[in-house]
Design a protein that fits this description.
The complex is a heterodimer.
Chain A lengths: L1 H6 L4 H22 L8 H6 L2 E14 H10 L5 E4 L5 E18 L6 E22 L5 E3 L2 E3 L4 E6 L2 E12 L9
Antiparallel strand pairs in A: 1-4, 1-8, 2-3, 2-7, 3-4, 4-5, 5-6, 7-8
Chain B lengths: L2 H8 L5 H21 L1 H13 L5 E11 L11 E4 L5 E13 L1 E5 L5 E5 L13 E10 L2 E4 L2 E4 L3 E3 L4 E5 L4 E11 L5
Antiparallel strand pairs in B: 1-6, 1-11, 2-3, 2-10, 3-6, 4-5, 7-8, 8-9, 10-11
Classes of the chains: A alpha+beta, B alpha+beta.
């Protein structure tokens, strides 16, 4: 037996095994020593400040046929997803519709005139979510900074569209710490 | 490498140390997978994979196209979604046309809706431009979080604009409704 052990030579498989083991140990060491970098640290998460916000997204010139589909299907608390990335923008709190406004010019008087589209609607979604205060004091929802003017493309099972944020407000001013 | 060493390599047999090393590697990989959430994602993926396929009824509109193009919309034709890597989109079931609608500003600055006129007053439906609406029976897809995904991959949602093609036409459509027609088993 002793003879057999002495005869064993370090080969390429042993080398590969050692490299793999070292790589895994290094990866594990990095992940567990700086877990906040990988979103795994409870301690780090507790330092983040979270607030509840409600914001409004406006979708302009939505055809009546789509407005009818929204009216027939939407429910409060529906999850509103980002159509461009794998994240949730929040929960639907309410929806309102109004006929789209057109700004024209009266050629006789030269004055600006407002009128309404017959069957195109401005649809406004009110969305509630928990936002993290970013390093530069902005509301971050899953990494997306929400503020008035932000262009957002949303999707739900019954509607997808591009719109703009037109209002943001904190609904409570008590920061929530992640448990 | 001489003949003797080649012989030794060929004689390599896994021993208990190798087995322990493999087990340690598997345990380490499993630990990292669980801790980093990869295991959860794999579970979700398996669940999605096992969701049965089904078909839906897709309603659509096409805006402001040439009157002659209408003849290329033939019920029964199979369309593909060019904007979804030519995935099979569905079978055209119904189709109808109407004079193209257009919003224009009048002299008073107000927005009013107008319709494409007939090119020949004596010929019904001889509009210069038309809007088309209709329905498809989709190709197979799956519902995930309530959203219909064509072939389990591509979102098909009211409001989505996509390019579809068949042998006769290449056109952009707006999806206006998605309705279940078969219940998942």
């Amino acid at each position: 037996m002793a003879k057999n052990i002495k005869k064993h030579r370090f080969n390429v498989i042993d080398a590969l095994l050692i490299i793999v083991i070292l790589a895994i140990i290094c990866a594990a060491a990095v992940i567990f020593s700086v877990p906040e970098k990988f979103g795994l640290s409870d301690a780090a998460a507790e330092e983040d400040q979270y607030v509840n916000i409600e914001y409004e997204l406006q979708f302009r010139k939505v055809p009546e046929v789509l407005k009818n589909v929204i009216e027939a299907n939407y429910n409060v608390n529906d999850a509103v997803y980002d159509a461009s990335a794998d994240r949730v923008f929040g929960e639907l709190v309410g929806v309102r519709f109004e006929k789209g406004v057109y700004t024209g010019v009266d050629l006789e008087s030269g004055k600006t005139v407002l009128s309404r589209y017959e069957d195109l609607y401005d649809v406004v979604f009110t969305i509630r979510t928990e936002a993290k205060m970013s390093d530069v004091d902005r509301y971050s929802v899953g990494g997306f900074e929400v503020s008035v003017g932000s262009a957002m493309k949303i999707k739900l099972p019954y509607f997808t569209y591009s719109g703009y944020c037109i209002k943001v407000a904190e609904v409570t001013d008590v920061a929530k710490e992640v448990e | 490498m001489n003949e003797e060493s080649i012989k030794k390599v060929r004689k390599f047999k896994p021993n208990i140390i190798d087995a322990l090393l493999v087990l340690a590697i598997i345990a380490a990989i499993a630990g990292i997978a669980i801790r980093s959430g990869i295991a959860e994602k794999v579970t979700e993926t398996v669940k999605e994979y096992n969701t049965p396929m089904e078909k839906v009824k897709i309603s659509f509109t096409v805006s402001d196209i040439n009157r002659a193009s209408f003849e290329t919309f033939t019920p029964g034709d199979v369309f593909r979604a060019a904007s979804m890597y030519y995935e099979q989109f569905g079978v055209l079931e119904t189709v109808e046309m109407a004079p193209a609608e257009k919003y224009v500003e009048n002299v008073h600055g107000q927005i009013v809706k107008s319709y494409s006129p007939l090119t020949d007053p004596d010929v019904p439906d001889s509009y210069a431009r038309i809007d088309v609406s209709g329905t498809f029976t989709s190709a197979d897809g799956k519902f995930e979080n309530g959203i219909f995904k064509l072939n389990g991959i591509y979102d098909v949602i009211p409001g989505l604009e996509i390019r579809i093609v068949d042998k006769d036409i290449d056109v952009n459509i707006k999806i206006t409704n998605v309705e279940r027609i078969t219940e998942a088993e």
